[in-house]
Amino acid sequence: MKKEDILQTLSFLSLKMENSGTVLLEAVAPDSIAHLDAALTRQDEAYDTSEFDKTGIKKVVEKLEKVAEFLGITPIQAAIMTVAFSCKIQDNYMDWNDVHKFFNVKSMVILPLKKDFEYLVSNKYLKRAGTRHYVEYDIEQSVVDSVMSGHPFDPCVLKEAHFDRYQFVSEISDLIEQRRDGDISTTELFDRSFELEQQNDTLPFIQNVRKLNLESRDRVFFYEICDDFLAHGETEITCTLKDIYSNPSIRFRIARELMDESHILLKLDLVSVLRNVMFSDSNLVLTEKGKHLFLEEDFELFAKSKNRNQKLIYPEDIQEKPLFYDEELSQQLNLLKENLQEDRFVELQKRLEGQSLPKGVAAIFHGLPGTGKTETAMQIAKATGRPVCHVDIASSKSCWFGESEKLIKRIFTDYADQCKKAVVKPILLFNEADALFSKRKDSSSSNVAQTENAIQNIILEEMEKLEGILIATTNLIDNLDGAFERRFLFKIRFDNPTVEAKQSIWKSKLSWLSEDENRILAERYNFSGGEIDNIVRKVIMEEVLNGKRPDIRFIEDLCRHEKIGNKETGSIGFRRCLLR
Length: 580
Description:
The chain is α/β, with parallel strands linked by helices and about 575 residues long. The chain is about 55% helix and about 10% strand.
């Protein structure tokens, strides 16, 4: 049927059907209408059908049958859709009053049509758009598009191709907005959500959620969290509960369940709470399990969009490097490393849990710059076969007020998710951690101070319940807040290497130096491992530029100019060499 034909047919029916009374209804639905017609309307003088002769009724019925064939429905359902189109043209929704007024019959006459209304709704011809006082219906946009294009409407194909879990949670969210605006009650919200579940019970997502044996209210809450995940990643607790429930007592009870983690969605590990200092700012996010349940085969697409504040480094991607320590430092690091070997770590956590002690292991590496703190953490990860979740401190401190707390909480939430799905727990590495772990400030001094204190409170709380491995490094241990000291099981100081260790470092970097030359460099220059690396890099530059290895005098010249503030003047060694 052409676009013009279907539009002309609907226009014709809108004019001819109005005031046709039960004669037309009998013609298209005799079984369901005739007995009510005889009882309620045939003897009523108000129903004057004299203007319709048999030929006129037959023509209307023929037109309805064409519309029914085009839309794939029955003639009586086509009559209902004609009323809906008539209301749509006037930019109105359709309700029961429109139907019985359109046919000029009493409302009781059209009661048997209720099942036809339900069919049109469940098969996506109509959608509910009601208020708390009465139900209204609107035409689905896909039906309008079909009529406007003249292409026959196929509800089966449409439902399979277009209505999925994403549209489902979107419709639940629309119902919640209606509750928020006062158009429906909370009870009606849950009832309509249940009807929507029933209409779409073939969706695997709905089937899997129902297998969890959640109450209807908890399913609706979860659906809204899923819809928010698609829109902005998080669900604001206070606002969402207010949208769903008008009763403050119920809102506060559910809020308490969320904050003390006794709510069923948290117990099932479907969602987690991003806590802020003020409860009103706390949000909910889907856990890895919740994302798997909702996203299904699309999970990998979302998983590729990693948290920008963390970089996951796998042990096979860490280059093995020899590191040299004094005896005391070596003993401390070996104790940590050996306990992080997977078999020992599993046993350790069982023993700690058995004695009601914290299961997590946190260590802080502190000392002078360039002494190998970060590299040591990387080498421990490689030796124990653990990935490293490397936290980008700079991007974790947002310029937007209130965002930093969410970012920090997300770091720990994502790390907990990584721990749950990983074969071995990764190491959460905070490099230059003094930026986050610094001494708390007077919260009355500024908003910045309040934010930084809030961040530290979040970190302290997360460290207290840590079940994985955290390593922090800092050059400024004196800036560390005292509250963090107890949370670190290992507090390991890195000093500049001893003469013996420096000799080993020089030998490993410049193997062609003699033992005496190694000893001279180790004894004369109090360098860290990082400073020795700088000298070695410039030695390599000299080799590249001049095609030969420099002698010990050239290397000592480089050493004398390594530290900033050295009183000696002159050009850097390899540049001076070029001028000779």
